[in-house]
From TrEMBL:
<dbReference type="InterPro" id="IPR015421">
    <property type="entry name" value="PyrdxlP-dep_Trfase_major"/>
</dbReference>
<dbReference type="InterPro" id="IPR015422">
    <property type="entry name" value="PyrdxlP-dep_Trfase_small"/>
</dbReference>
<dbReference type="GO" id="GO:0008483">
    <property type="term" value="F:transaminase activity"/>
</dbReference>
<keyword id="KW-0663">Pyridoxal phosphate</keyword>
<dbReference type="GO" id="GO:0030170">
    <property type="term" value="F:pyridoxal phosphate binding"/>
</dbReference>
<dbReference type="GO" id="GO:0009862">
    <property type="term" value="P:systemic acquired resistance, salicylic acid mediated signaling pathway"/>
</dbReference>
<feature type="domain" description="Aminotransferase class I/classII large">
    <location>
        <begin position="72"/>
        <end position="420"/>
    </location>
</feature>
<dbReference type="InterPro" id="IPR019942">
    <property type="entry name" value="DapL/ALD1"/>
</dbReference>
<comment type="similarity">
    <text>Belongs to the class-I pyridoxal-phosphate-dependent aminotransferase family. LL-diaminopimelate aminotransferase subfamily.</text>
</comment>
<dbReference type="Pfam" id="PF00155">
    <property type="entry name" value="Aminotran_1_2"/>
</dbReference>
<keyword id="KW-0032">Aminotransferase</keyword>
<protein>
    <recommendedName>
        <fullName>Aminotransferase class I/classII large domain-containing protein</fullName>
    </recommendedName>
</protein>
<keyword id="KW-0808">Transferase</keyword>
<dbReference type="InterPro" id="IPR004839">
    <property type="entry name" value="Aminotransferase_I/II_large"/>
</dbReference>
<dbReference type="InterPro" id="IPR015424">
    <property type="entry name" value="PyrdxlP-dep_Trfase"/>
</dbReference>
Length: 456
């Protein structure tokens, strides 16, 4: 396969988000009327541009305004599209209807989550891994839990992230005050250790070259690259954390897409209970992106340097900052984990896997260098020598397809697009046709630089 170079974008869209920064600075210079004496949070001032996905939505809306009659296809933000199985929604509906009765009404529940659901999560996802229901904290989604974990960690910790990485890890660290300023030249924040994860190292960091940090954010299967860490690699990560006295925050939100027997939980690795927190979600597993339901595991064995249980502090954070996940959503979660619910969910996951396969075959047939796409819903497509926002803009302008520019996931994502297998089948097929027409037509404008094979 080959990599392609874009020389520039013909799109009306700006090639990088820098205009947003300028707009923000211009706003600060203007006198907008009477102001309070409250000084803006200095950590929020450090944030570079908009958060990635709202920025993509903004550009999407601009494109629709410019092309009101086109059929826009999103292969971008990773939102699920298929209906939640009726086996599950009927349980939520029944629970909601019961709230209108004296017998069925429920008010506040436990902040940590319904006991039955917590036990079901422990049994279903962690079977023989010794996870207890008391270690399960049910939430309104993994992204919310990342922010609650940041409250737990505080501003004084040092962090390491995969590069590229899901942007919420870094942005929440900036907001908490764990980082320094953004360096425009390197596209990195000071005091954050970026662990390169690319084709050159099989998308797993060189831990021998990684300095110690208090916290290591690690996502497998990885968002955005689609790569899953092997059992051997996770053994290395756990041993690295144990040697350095670090904590791993392990994001397993895409574990349901693993096909090759790779670990779906960090707790499959011996010793992980002493060094790891796991965050996961019903969003991609069950199509709950709008329903909102997730969980975090804090093992009893996970201790601070003074021996105090971290679980106790997270319990305090949760009961202070959160009133618990919606009881209707939790009823849906229980239905998901029934034998009938799991069967229905697997069918939907297989649907997205087939989408991913269609896109993979299309992109490879065009000579593009494609990574991921086996154990995750995402394809990581390389455009050597190009700026990812330029490629995003040119693809959008010419095919009316939304993707995600790789640089939004960190400096290691430059030259890449993330393409999602979440979508309706007719959209996936139509998108494949548009991509074929576009790249075949534009081949003469591209330079073929190198060949590579898809792995993982």
């Amino acid at each position: 396969m080959v990599s392609l170079m874009f020389f520039g974008s013909s799109s009306y869209l700006c090639s990088s988000p820098s205009k947003n920064t300028k707009a923000s600075l211009d706003f600060e210079r203007k006198k907008v009327g009477p102001c309070t004496k409250l000084v803006r949070n200095v950590n929020l001032e450090k944030l570079k541009n908009n958060y990635l996905f709202p920025e993509i939505t903004r550009r999407e809306l601009e494109h629709v305004e410019k092309h009101p009659n086109v059929r826009l296809i999103s292969l971008g933000t990773g939102d699920t599209t298929e209906p939640i199985p009726e086996q599950i929604t009927s349980q939520m509906s029944n629970f909601a209807h019961a709230l209108s009765t004296v017998e069925g009404y429920r008010g506040y529940g436990l902040e940590q989550g319904d006991k039955t659901l917590r036990q079901a999560i422990a049994n279903t996802f962690y079977g023989n891994l010794c996870v207890k229901s008391s270690e399960v904290f049910v939430s309104d989604g993994a992204q919310s839990d990342i922010s609650r974990l940041q409250l737990l960690l505080g501003s004084g910790v040092t962090i390491a992230v995969q590069d590229p990485t899901f942007p919420a890890y870094v942005d929440s660290s900036v907001i908490m005050g764990q980082t320094g300023r953004f360096h425009e030249a390197t596209k990195t924040y000071q005091n954050v250790v970026y662990m390169p994860c690319g084709p050159q190292n099989s998308f797993f960091p060189d831990l021998a070259m990684t300095p110690r940090t208090d916290v290591i954010f690690f996502c497998s299967p990885n968002n955005p690259t689609g790569y899953v860490a092997s059992r051997k690699q996770l053994h290395q990560l756990v041993e690295f954390a144990k040697t350095n006295g670090s904590i791993i925050i392990f994001d397993s939100a895409y574990a349901a897409f693993i096909e090759d027997g790779s670990p779906r939980s960090i707790y499959e690795i011996p010793g992980a209970r002493e060094v790891a927190i796991e965050v996961s979600s019903f969003s991609k597993f069950a199509g709950f992106t709008g329903v909102r339901l997730g969980w975090t595991i804090i093992p009893d064995e996970l201790l601070y340097s003074n021996g105090f249980p971290i679980l106790n502090d997270f319990h305090r954070i949760v009961t202070t900052s959160f009133n618990g996940a919606s009881n209707i959503a939790q009823a849906g979660g229980l239905a998901c984990l029934s034998s009938a619910g799991l069967k229905e969910i697997r069918s939907v996951i297989n649907y997205y896997k087939e989408n991913r396969k269609i896109l993979m075959e299309t992109l490879v047939s065009l000579g593009l260098t494609v990574y991921g796409g086996v154990n995750a819903p995402y394809l990581w497509v390389h455009f050597r020598g190009s700026k990812s926002w330029d490629v995003f803009a040119e693809v959008l302008e010419n095919t009316h397809i939304i993707t995600v520019p790789g640089s939004g996931f960190g400096p290691g994502g430059e030259e890449y697009l993330r393409i999602s297998g979440f979508g309706r089948r007719d959209d996936i097929i139509e998108a494949s046709k548009r991509l074929q027409r576009f790249f075949n037509k534009r081949t003469k404008h591209f330079i073929f630089l190198s060949s590579a094979s898809n792995n993982n």
